[in-house]
């Protein structure tokens, strides 16, 4: 049952989240692709939204990680809604208090491009390094700053810019303390390779760019996700899709790993691919899923030991599906369907590997799509598998929003704690009717864990 204020709902022993506040007394429960789901019939009023941790956030693009747990706190960085400058805050898990947001520095992109969002990494001494403010040739370099004190967000020092025409930074600290900075590199108007740079001094400076993926002209390898296997030697596993510009098309899903000892790329099966993987080598050795004439969304990769699991979406004439890929028996990829949903090419799903059999996915599930962005109903669903991805079931509706909202990506907190697992920014889409230009503006940012939303209280609320 549900009361007028939107109380707890029980359906065949299944409890939907009690954080949902309805703007009307009407709740719609419907069967969607064989699953029961729900949404409120009216839009949520501004004062009735679920608890947030920020009111000033702008949706993050593809730089990761943007949320990291370190020594009792979860640090989250994101763009300021007003001018897209990098902001950072943290949640103290002992006191249950969010720190005041701090502006790290300006964003050289300004408000003309939303792709310059920050990513962060801690060095071995606890100093926080932030990377942001770049998208290809705009401005042609990456901003880099370090906190003035370990584990302290209050003051920052700008360091030398990094990269040549870079995009979407992914900093990773290895077991030996070295920091590897992965990013796209535009080498022409229609070519983006993938490179990494190494810092051996805790992030103070970075060496030359090393190209590890290059498909040549008319191919972009920008949207890559990465995860560290801390072993002997360390490996960095990568997953990517390919974009062509003429026509504008994004397709397939591929994976390989970088051996940080010899600087070579290897297929997941262990085939030595040398220092740079080209298109032919990738098709032969790295292909996880061949989407054919269909498009795919950017993949997310996580590991259990040296076994990679990947989630991505496939777009098939508007009948779209989230998919799960797992490396099976050390020999091949097995790909299964998770849940159908309208998808856009720039959406990210994400997931958590609880153990080799139990996987929790967090996926934006979009309904009521008319073929355009402006009339969507979206649920962020927790969809789990207990048989290594063979079958999936909806366990919880984390978030619901109706009409003109969607969720671009979900960030799983690096080294998360159960009370704060994910961070996401629902986004509001609208169109300027006269010029038919599309604009987007993020609303409040949300943090969520096993106990529900991890919200903050503002003085004037």
How would you describe this protein?
This protein is an all-beta fold and 461 residues long. The chain contains one helix and 38 strands. The protein has one helix spanning 279-285, and strands spanning 9-11, 14-16, 27-32, 35-40, 57-58, 67-70, 73-80, 86-92, 97-98, 102-103, 119-122, 128-132, 143-147, 156-158, 166-173, 179-188, 191-199, 210-213, 219-220, 224-229, 235-245, 248-259, 264-266, 287-289, 295-296, 300-304, 307-315, 321-328, 332-340, 350-353, 359-367, 377-385, 393-401, 405-417, 420-432, 437-442, 446-449, 452-453. Strands 5, 6, 7, 8, 9 and 10 form a six-stranded antiparallel sheet that branches. Strands 15, 16, 17, 18 and 19 form a five-stranded mixed sheet that branches. Strands 20, 21, 22, 23 and 24 form a five-stranded antiparallel sheet that branches. The longest helix is centred in the middle third of the chain and has 7 residues, at 279-285. The chain is globular and about 50 Å long.
């Amino acid at each position: 049952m549900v009361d007028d204020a939107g109380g707890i709902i029980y359906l065949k022993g299944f409890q939907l989240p009690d954080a949902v506040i309805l703007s009307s007394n009407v709740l719609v429960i419907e069967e969607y692709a064989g699953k029961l789901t729900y949404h409120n019939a009216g839009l949520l009023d501004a004062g009735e939204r679920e608890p947030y941790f920020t009111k000033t956030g702008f949706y993050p693009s593809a730089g990761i990680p943007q949320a990291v747990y370190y020594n009792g706190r979860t640090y989250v960085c994101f763009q300021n809604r007003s001018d897209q400058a990098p902001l950072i805050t943290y949640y103290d898990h002992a006191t249950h208090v969010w720190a005041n947001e701090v502006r790290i520095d300006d964003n050289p992109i300004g408000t003309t491009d939303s792709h310059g969002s920050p990513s962060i990494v801690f060095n071995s001494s606890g100093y926080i390094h932030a990377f942001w403010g770049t998208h290809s040739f705009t401005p042609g370099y990456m901003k880099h700053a370090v906190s003035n004190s370990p584990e302290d967000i209050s003051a920052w020092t700008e360091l030398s810019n990094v990269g040549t025409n870079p995009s979407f930074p992914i900093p990773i600290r290895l077991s030996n303390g070295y920091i590897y900075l992965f990013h796209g590199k535009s080498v022409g108007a229609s070519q983006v390779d993938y490179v990494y740079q190494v810092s051996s001094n805790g992030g103070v400076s970075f060496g030359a760019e090393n190209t590890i993926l290059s498909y040549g002209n008319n191919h972009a390898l920008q949207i890559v996700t990465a995860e560290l296997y801390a072993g002997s030697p360390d490996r960095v596993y990568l997953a990517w899709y390919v974009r062509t510009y003429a026509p504008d098309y994004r397709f397939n899903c591929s994976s390989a790993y970088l051996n940080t000892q010899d600087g070579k790329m290897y297929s997941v099966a262990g085939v030595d691919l040398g220092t740079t993987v080209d298109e032919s080598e990738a098709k032969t050795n790295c292909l996880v899923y061949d989407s054919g004439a269909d498009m795919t969304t950017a993949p997310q990769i996580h590991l259990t030991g040296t076994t990679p699991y990947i989630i991505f979406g496939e777009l098939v004439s508007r009948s779209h599906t989230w998919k799960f890929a797992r490396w099976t028996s050390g020999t091949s990829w097995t790909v299964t369907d998770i849940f159908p949903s309208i998808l856009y090419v720039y959406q990210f799903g994400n997931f958590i590997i609880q153990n080799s059999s139990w996987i929790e996915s967090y996926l934006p599930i979009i309904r009521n799509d008319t073929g355009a962005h402006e009339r969507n109903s979206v649920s962020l669903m927790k969809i789990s598998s207990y048989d290594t991805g063979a079958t999936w079931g909806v366990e919880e509706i984390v978030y619901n929003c109706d009409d003109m909202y969607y969720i671009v990506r979900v960030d799983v907190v690096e080294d998360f704690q159960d009370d704060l697992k994910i961070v996401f920014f629902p986004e509001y889409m609208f169109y300027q009717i006269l010029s038919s230009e599309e604009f987007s503006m993020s609303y409040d940012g949300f943090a969520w864990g096993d106990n529900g939303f991890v919200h903050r209280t503002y003085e004037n609320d």
